[in-house]
């Protein structure tokens, strides 16, 4: 569903937001798109178990746990950080995944770095038996195929399409289905120059660019002005944004509009990739640091 923002913008710019956060009540946004064809494939291969990787507050872990439950798979989550073992109750994401039946394997940050190596995967096979492997963040060719379904006929008139970037899978699908007159802008939620190359693996089109100025210090990092922005945006538009991805992207677009980055009369589409389950975990962290919290009930 596309929702036009009613607040007014300079230079006759118009901004519309695609509410992918509403496509599913639990597996909201892009993680639903990314899992769709992976679930078909796992079924076709007759797999009984899904295994994947993620951090403490991962939207992907929550999505896989729920999708596994709904589709009759067992699920195993390899979680980064062995100190989390004893802290499940204090972590809304892990608690939710556990309630969905996900079995956890907590590993140190060092061990986690080896997650794509054959020896590590062989060890997991010995321990858990056969499984269908979904990579960290869910990005693979089947995920990108799912994300090619985000843009539809109704989006042909937009000049700019903006989305948050984590591993680059979602934007790759969007780039593949964007039209030649459209420009796709990606806003990485983390620091690092590797993303450009990751995306090039999956796309041929050239009409895209990464805007790297709005990561707010890195993945999962927030600043008070970002929290203030999310709360104000919610008050103005009644649209909830998450602090890890969509909040940073929308902050970036609003800032670029103020800085006259976009030509007059630009018709901008923002992709709301979901991630709202992360608000609760972020609020736990913010409270611990005695910072203002996100005033959105999810
Ligand atoms: C995972 C996620 C992203 C990033 O998607 P990638 O395909 O990894 O780039 C963006 N927004 C939200 C809400 C997410 O959960």
TrEMBL record:
Listed A to Z, the keywords are: Pyridoxal phosphate
Record's InterPro entries?
Answer: ACCD_DCysDesulf, TrpB-like_PALP, TrpB-like_PALP_sf
Q: Which GO terms describe its molecular function?
A: D-cysteine desulfhydrase activity
Domain Tryptophan synthase beta chain-like PALP positions: 14-274
Q: Where is the signal peptide?
A: none
Report whether Transmembrane shows up as a keyword of the record: no
Keyword check for Transcription regulation: no
Pfam families the UniProt entry points to: PALP (PF00291)
The entry's active site is: 58 (nucleophile)
Q: Per its Swiss-Prot or TrEMBL entry, what cofactor is needed?
A: pyridoxal 5'-phosphate
* Positions where N6-(pyridoxal phosphate)lysine occurs in the chain: 31
Q: Which PANTHER family match?
A: 1-AMINOCYCLOPROPANE-1-CARBOXYLATE DEAMINASE-RELATED
Identify its protein family. Belongs to the ACC deaminase/D-cysteine desulfhydrase family.
- Name of the molecule in the record: 1-aminocyclopropane-1-carboxylate deaminase/D-cysteine desulfhydrase
